[in-house]
Amino acid sequence: MNALKVLRYFPLLVIVLLGPSIAFGAAVRIKDLVEYDGVRGNDLVGYGLVVGLNGTGDGLRNAPFTEEALANLLERLGINVAGEQFRPKNVAAVLVTANLPAFARAGGQIDVTVSAIGDSKSLRGGTLIMTPLSAADGNIYAVAQGSLIAGGISASGEAAEVVRGVPTSAVIPAGARVEREVDFVLSDMREMRIALRNPDFTTAVRIEQAINNSFGKRIARMMDSGTVQLDIDRSGAPSPAHLISMLENIEVITAQKARVVVDQRSGTIVLGDDVRISRVAISQGNLTLRVKEAPLVVQPNPFSRSGEAIVVPRSEVDIEEEPGIGLALVDDAVSLPEVIEGLNALGVSPQDMIDILKAIKAAGALHAEFIVQ
Fold first, then answer.
1. Which residues pair with 259 in a beta bridge?
2. Which residues contact 235 (CB under 8 A, 6 or more apart)?
3. Are 289 and 249 in contact (CB under 8 A)?
4. Which residues pair with 230 in a beta bridge?
């Protein structure tokens, strides 16, 4: 089949053709391809209370943990509420999450995200009370407090409710202060590993060669498809930080696997120029079957004493075959992007396009990793 060079766009179909100058075979800086050993963030989490809500807090009968946390907070402040019945509607229990970046120092500030865990309807206008944030090791690394910024909004009446966005989630920019530093000293490292975000043997070898050529000596050694090890002492750099700054702007030509990514919900197809297909024949068409029931009631003759009404079934069956793609031969010389362009020119619907790609993959003719989302 000679693929037509006409590309049409349909309402629910977006096709992205990644050429070699864009994604495959492009020169990319090492800093955009790898992560450095030990240079990483740490996730933090904490449980806290948000106060000052305008009647949109937790219903304490449905969220007893909110009442217990509020009572504990008041007791720490010197107010004894044991045995008291209080039902405030301006308090909500929340989980606070944050990311402690690499090399964060005590006294620094980080952003936090606040999410309701009870039946609160909105966190707009609330204030987070001092909440310790701990990491996976159980130690407290930051303390969060401040006024919330919620992007959603909700309004309700007697018989209707309108919700825009997510009013039960909010953020506090620079809302947490770092109280404890991660015990990691970069300058003590004598060897360092760099990890590829997308492991690939060819790309790892090219990173090794580019670093060695840049320094004029063998300081990099590929361990596997996702790891390259650096000898810091042999590099002659004053420190590991200086070494990272020298090598992260070195450009490397990447090599990635051929992939076809399909998003069935939006009708998006993303593929690379190096995707190839073998010789295959394609035939596609839509078959529609319609069955209509129209029962007929037969009445007895007038003045008949023994007659009775009978329902006679009557069905109408119709088969309609819509025009589709006839049997077409795709040669080895045609790349998959050219086939997609040809199918677009023939007016194939997004769902049919995805089904055709699935069938080509099932036939073993599509030589690429096929990812369906």
1. 369
2. 215, 217, 219, 243
3. no
4. 192, 220
How far is Cα 253 from Cα 306, in angstroms, rounded to an integer? 93
Residue 247: name the closest of 34, 24, 1, 25 by CA: 34
pLDDT tens figures, 331-355: 555 666 666 676 666 666 767 777 7
pLDDT tens per residue across span 98-115: 999 988 999 999 999 999
174: its two tokens: 């620079």
Cα dihedral 54/59/63/65 (nearest 10):
50
CB 273 within 8 A of CB 20: yes
End-to-end CA distance of the chain: 29
CA distance 327 to 324: 10
Buried b (16+ CB within 10 A) or exposed e, 296-324: eeeeeeeeeeeeeeeeeeeeeeeeeeeee
Q: Which of 147, 367, 182, 156 is nearest to 276 (CA)?
A: 367
In 3D space, the residue among 352, 345, 365, 197 whose CA is nearest the CA of residue 262 turns out to be 352
3-state SS assignment for residue 255: coil
Helices (H), 236-295: 240-247
Pairing of strands 259-263, 369-372: parallel
Residue type, 321: E
Give the pLDDT confidence of 119-152 residue by residue, as tens digits: 888 888 899 999 999 999 999 999 999 999 887 6
**How many residues are there in the chain?**
373
282, 356 contact by CB (below 8 A): yes
Cβ–Cβ under 8 Å, residues 118 and 93:
yes
| One-letter amino acid of 99 | N
pTM of the entire structure?
0.67
Q: CA–CA distance from 40 to each of 65, 99, 113, 183, 243 (Å)?
A: 34, 10, 19, 12, 17
Residue type, 18: L
What DSSP letter does each residue of 351-365 carry, written as one string? HHHHHHHHHHHHTT-
Name beta bridge partners: 291: 317
Contact 133, 98 (CB under 8 A): yes
Cα separations in angstroms, 282 against 74, 81, 325, 330, 337: 72, 76, 8, 8, 15
